[in-house]
Structures are given as C-alpha cells and as structure tokens.
Amino acid sequence: MSSADRILVIRNRDLVPLLPEPVQAAEQPWSGVVLERHSVKPMEIPEHEHGDLCLHLQLSGDSDFEWWTEGKNRVETTAPGSMIVLPAGTRDRLRWTGPSDRLLLSLKSNEIARLAEETTGSPEVNFSPQWSATDSGLRNLLMEMGRQVHDGWPLGSLYANLLSLDLQHHLLRKYAGGAYKSPVIKGGLPRPQLRRAMEFMNEHLTTDLRLDEIAEELEISPFHFARAFRSSTGQTPHQYLLDRRMDEAKALLRHSAASVGEIAVRCGFNSPVNFTRAFRERVGCTPTEWRLQAS
Q: Cα dihedral sign for 119, 122, 125, 126?
C-alpha cells in the first residue's frame, strides 16, 4: 500500500502515516477520501498536525484515552461507537491506555470546501475538534463505508461517490458551526438532461461508473446531479443503475447461454460473487436459480 493511499500527518516536518500499517488495505474508488481499519494496542502517538479532516470511529474496546492540544489536556471515557472529529490544522498528541479496533477516515479539505462553496457560496468551513462525539448518523455512514471496503466495493464507484457526498453533507450540517444548510433542489432535472443521464448510464452498464462522470456529461456538479436525479425519479443514481443492470442480467440469463461470470462482466460487476450478492439482494434468489425458474 503506497503512502498516497494512507492517512498522513505532519510530524517533525515530515509527512508520515498517522498509525502503523492498517489491518485492511485496499484500493478505494473515491476521490479525496482514505479509509483505514486498525487494531490499536496501548500506545502513544507523538505530536503531529492534520493536513486533512480526520475521523475516528471506535468499533471495540472501552479503555480511556488521553489527548493534548493547544495547551489543553483531557482523559476521555470511550465505548464502541465513540468518535473523534479533528479538522485540518489540528495539532495534537494522543495516548490510548488499552486496545481497540477502529475505523479512521481522512477527507481532503478541498473536497469539503468545494461542496461548501457550491451550496453556500463560500468555501470557508470552520470545524471544531470533537474528542468524544456521539452521532448515530455519522457512525452509520462510516460503518457502511467500512463494510463496502471489507467486501471489495461490490456496489461500485457510483455508490462510493454517493456515500462520500452524504458524509460531507453530514459533516457540514453537524460540525460546521450551524452556518450550513443543505439546499433543497426543486423540480429535479430538466427533461432533456434526465433523458441524457439515463442514456449515458445505459450506454455504460458494463463499466464501473463514477458519479462525476455522469455529472460531467450533463455539465453540472456531482452534488446537483445526485440531488436533482433523485428529485426527478425517486431513486438515487446508484439505485437506478442497479435496476438497469438487473434488467440486463435477467435478459441475458433468459435469452443467452452466457455463464454467470460472463453476465457479471457484461453488467458492470467486478466479480461473479459481487454480482450474485447484488442479484440476490435485489431479486430474492441467485442468478442461477432465477435462470432455472425462467426457463
């Protein structure tokens, strides 16, 4: 795993990983986000500075930890579900007194600044450090991201992009000092744009589409496209694309002799396992079972 794929901090003027090698390392299909899972032993992290916003979600363990920042010092009592939210520019030192499993996520400052400017007119975002946050919405988002990484992103880049957008909206709503209000998109996409979006997705059923690729085709931002598409159709772009892939898979299962593995590739899935999982969740049975029932 290269340093570019790690959560990095500044320590003694050097850019170094925040924690040792993670338990799980995998290529991740999103921009500006890095997620790592760690089993942390009792340890101290020397003073360092965060160049990007950093989140910790504690998955297991209930030992106290101690932090130092800006002349302040405190011991926090933790439990599974406890979270730390540290904005870019935070300079701190940490000490864990016991073992824990945790998800760590970093988010590039320019990503969240871009969304803030698009939705509020200003890229300025002021977060305050949160050393013991309890936030079920943020916890659920991070847990879903962790599941997707663990499973090899079976739902693809489009779903990854939507999760990243949801994360940024949540952070802005909850931790940007109350100045952010998520705008309401009224009226959805104009009919020509909606038609082109659907055509584009149907033309690329075999590829792992990214949200920004579809938005670029329409010459609008990913944020506006995701919200307006849902307003128009009642579905997220990911849900629509998955429905279309299931329709295509059923047609191939019924009318061709292609194997399940071949159909998986032709419908944009990166493995037969991920295709079978998605098909079962969406249709209620495996592709092979469906083919037998339809014959």
A: negative
Tokens encoding 62: 């209930």
The predicted pLDDT at position 106 comes to 95
Rounded to the nearest 5°, which phi and psi values hold at 103? -100, 135
| Rounded distance between C-alpha atoms, residue 144 and residue 47, angstroms | 30
CATH of the domain spanning 184-295: 1.10.10.60
Residue 54 has pLDDT above 70, yes or no: yes
**What residue ranges do the domains of the chain occupy?**
3-151, 184-295
Q: What pLDDT is attached to residue 179?
A: 58
Is 60 exceeded by the pLDDT of residue 183? no
Residue 19 is given by DSSP the state S
**C-alpha distances in angstroms, 121 versus 52, 114, 169, 170, 181?**
21, 10, 15, 18, 11
Q: What is the DSSP string of 182-244?
A: PPPP-S-S-HHHHHHHHHHHHHTTTS---HHHHHHHHTS-HHHHHHHHHHHHSS-HHHHHHHH
Matching CATH number, 3-151, of 3.20.20.70, 3.10.310.40, 1.20.810.10, 2.60.120.10: 2.60.120.10
Residue-wise over 129-154: b if at least 16 C-beta within 10 A, else e? Answer: bbbbbebeebbebbeebbebbeeebb
**Backbone φ and ψ of 252, nearest 5°:** -70, -40
State pLDDT tens for residues 70-95. Answer: 999 999 999 999 999 999 999 999 99
Q: What pTM was estimated for this model as a whole?
A: 0.75
pLDDT at residue 142 in the model: 95
